[in-house]
Amino acid sequence: MIFNFRFIRAISYFFLFLLIFTMSCDETNGNEKGLINQYPITKKDIVYDSYFDKKIEDPYRWLEDDRSPETEKWVIEQNKITNNYLGLIPYRDSLKDRVKNLWNYEKLSSPFKEGKYTYFYKNNGLQNQNVLYRHLNDESSKNAKVFLDPNSFKSDGTISLGNISFSKNSKFLAYSISEGGSDWRKIIVMDLKRNEVLKDTLVDVKFSGISWYKDEGFYYSSYDKPKGSVLSSKTDQHKLFYHKIGTNQSDDLLIYGMAKDQKNRYINASVTDDDRYLIISASISTSGNKLLFKDLVKPDSDFVSIIDNYNSDSYLLDNVGSTFYVVTNLDAPNQKIVSFEADAPDQMNWNDIIPEREHVLNPSSVGGYFFAEYMVDAISRVEQYDYQGNFIRNLKLPGIGSVNGFGGKRSDKIDFYSFTNYKTPPSIFSIDVETGVSKLYWQPKIDFNPNDYESKQVFYSSSDGTKIPMTITHKKGLKLNSKNPTILYGYGGFNISLNPSFSIANAVWLELGGVYAVANIRGGGEYGKKWHNSGTKMQKQNVFDDFISAAEYLIKEKITSNSFLALKGGSNGGLLVGAVMTQRPDLMKVALPAVGVLDMLRYHTFTAGAGWAYDYGTSQDSKEMFEYLLGYSPVHNIKKGNKYPATLITTGDHDDRVVPAHSFKFAAELQEKQSCSNPTLIRIETDAGHGAGTPVTKTIQQYADIIGFTLFNMGVNEL
Fold first, then answer.
1. Number of separate helices (H) and strands (E) present in the chain
2. How far apart are CA 493 and CA 300, in angstroms?
3. CB 619 within 8 A of CB 593
4. Are 293 and 270 in contact (CB under 8 A)?
5. Directed axis angle between helix 661-673 and helix 69-87, to 10°?
6. Which tens digit of pLDDT belongs to each residue from 288-325?
7. Distances (CA, A) of 381 to 50, 373, 399
8. Cβ distance 182 to 228 under 8 Å?
9. CA nearest to 682, candidates 215, 36, 113, 58
10. Virtual CA dihedral for 650, 651, 653, 655, nearest 10 degrees?
């Protein structure tokens, strides 16, 4: 019944807006100026897939082969036509210069102590990758020296630094690197006393932490290397290994994940600070995990289950001896902290330390205290508690926004956190954990004045009456004349919350008079597990309806109009944009789907995509689920004769999380079926992945191109 209702509504959308689709192609700055003579011809090699009683055509299946010379040629041709178009935007270079100039300020991370040294990351401004510095604990940060510089790994900055992990006595450092943006990593080990790299380099590591046991070795996770394409083949059985320093990777011990009848797609492990327990989290999807532990004092001990099913999300926050403190949403959708003894981990023995409350809890521990961050309509509030659950104080934060970084060792008496919002670059504050007093530790010097801008949070009604928060940021004194270029951003999935944060690209957009709006739609984690679940599987249409209603609110309030509105989102947010632009192409002038999940019938056949089934379901689950997915899958809902907004699809050729084939097939369908002159382009970054670790030089150019494409197609001919 749910699918039938959605399907009928989708059909009604089509007929309702059939007469006004021409409005989305108002010939502002499209092909009528001869900017695109002809798109590259994408051949059709139709493959048929059978789903229950229905056959589905897949004419561009060949684009899924990332190793094919034909696919490589197609990428080159698409990039050529896209670069030619972007090169004709008169202010492309000046936009790039402004993004570059604004980007060029010193950026610092919060400091942290390991052994006798204090470490922090710094970027002088335009370095492709952040650099790790260190100084002696009793010295000033002015004496800090470069310790690890990933910019030296490769001249073009396409090798990035991932996780770093110090052994318990700071004798060794293990760090991971990514090449070309891939999720496949290498782990490199350094002897810190001799300051030299050991021969213990591990290869083919993916979705892994690095957790040391004493100074002897560390635990890490990975998949068997696929026989097909390393970047797109399915990786479906995660395994936990232990590597002992000085041995070959081939001799590493398989600790967990060997049972063929117990498939876990994500396994993570950590050793408690006292080296007593190994904690393992095992998941079959991105939501829900088993939690178990092993007593390392007893080498032959068995694993003990804390939670033996995948119906909730739980993790260890800390332990004091044999007392465990666990964060869980089991019977507590907004999360709580519980305690229990290692010899009695059953739920009947759990004690609530910080019970579930109205708002979502995201706690951390440092200095022998819990710092409980609560999300109140996506805004941070922080309370401090002791380990018995006694309330200590409310922390006074620098303003309305987001805090990040609480957490450290139990011996730390000073902690650090950052504060930011949509118009304020992150500043770092120190906090005395005993007094709760915060002090400004570092503030960026940037050529941007937050006082010239304002952010306000509004609540609008979605199609079913659900109230959705949205934050709108713009220059002070904005005129409500329906002509303000506006970017509406959303995500809506995987229990991920969109909290206020600063972006250099958005700062440039605001400087130019643009409006930036972020809708906290269902599927995210802003209001806990119930909010997440209401945007999953057969309720996924709620996510799209929430985003559509956000756009309609902005138009109704005359903040913008469909001629000046762009929709933007990445990954699951790319799906969001793809679904909304195919359901309501009249609603926006520009669509900006980035690294999107766009083929909903086949997403689970690539890399670790099967793990996303908690949110999406799969086309193999049932006929009803297949029909529901087919009803909104962006690749399958592009209709010939419709007039789609100006579209710039972005992806990376090394994206092995959401493989670029999603974007390739979506672009091919759009280019074939677009019935007006609005450009439908794809920008494919080479030697880049899903986003993390992309060199600054590439990021600056991409941001400039996205802003330029958006404004140009809104009719802005000069800045």
1. 11, 40
2. 41
3. no
4. no
5. 60
6. 999 999 999 998 899 999 999 999 999 999 999 999 99
7. 51, 6, 10
8. no
9. 36
10. 170
Quick one: which of 621, 572, 403, 583 has its CA closest to 500? 403
Residue 305 CA to residue 302 CA, distance in Å, equals 10
Rounded-to-10 torsion of CA 519, 521, 525, 527: 100
CA distance 683 to 471: 29
- DSSP readout, 266-305? EEEEEE-TTS-EEEEEEESSSS--EEEEEETTSTTPPPEE
pLDDT at residue 25 in the model: 61
Give me the chain's average pLDDT, please: 93
As annotated, the active-site residues are 571, 690
User: For residue 495, which amino acid is it?
Assistant: N
Dihedral angle of Cα 685, 686, 692, 695, to the nearest 10 degrees: -100
As given in the structure block, the two tokens for residue 631 are 């009803």
**Residues ≥6 apart with Cβ < 8 Å to 259:** none
Question: Dihedral sign, CA of 402, 405, 410, 413?
Answer: negative
- Compute φ and ψ for 89, nearest 5 degrees: -70, 120
Round to whole Å and give the CA distance between 112 and 117: 9
What SS3 state is found at 636? Answer: helix
- Is beta strand 54-58 parallel, antiparallel or unpaired with respect to 424-432? unpaired
450, 476 contact by CB (below 8 A): no
Report the chain's C-alpha Rg in angstroms.
26
Tokens for 584?
């309501």
Taking only the tens place, the pLDDT of each residue in 366-419 is 999 999 999 999 999 999 999 999 999 999 999 999 999 999 999 999 999 999
CA–CA gap between residue 632 and residue 10 (Å, rounded): 9
Cα–Cα distance, 432 to 415 (Å, whole number): 7
pTM listed for this prediction: 0.93
CA-based nearest residue to 52, from 538, 536, 601:
601
The residues, ordered by sequence, that sit 6+ positions from 435 with a Cβ below 8 Å of its Cβ are: none
Closest residue by Cα to residue 399 from 419, 383, 417:
419
Dig out the tokens for 193 from the structure. 């006393």
Backbone angles phi, psi at 139, to 5 degrees: -110, 165
Cα gap 464→539, rounded to integer Å: 12
What are the residues whose beta carbons fall under 8 Å from the beta carbon of 147, sequence distance 6 or more?
119, 132, 133, 134
In this predicted model, what pLDDT tens digit does every residue of 509-567 receive, in sequence order?
Answer: 999 999 999 999 999 999 999 999 999 999 999 999 999 999 999 999 999 999 999 99
Q: How far is CA 392 from CA 172, 237, 382, 430, in A?
A: 37, 44, 11, 18
DSSP string of 342-356, one letter each residue:
TT--SGGG-EEEE--
Alpha-helical (H) ranges within 425-540 are 504-511, 529-533
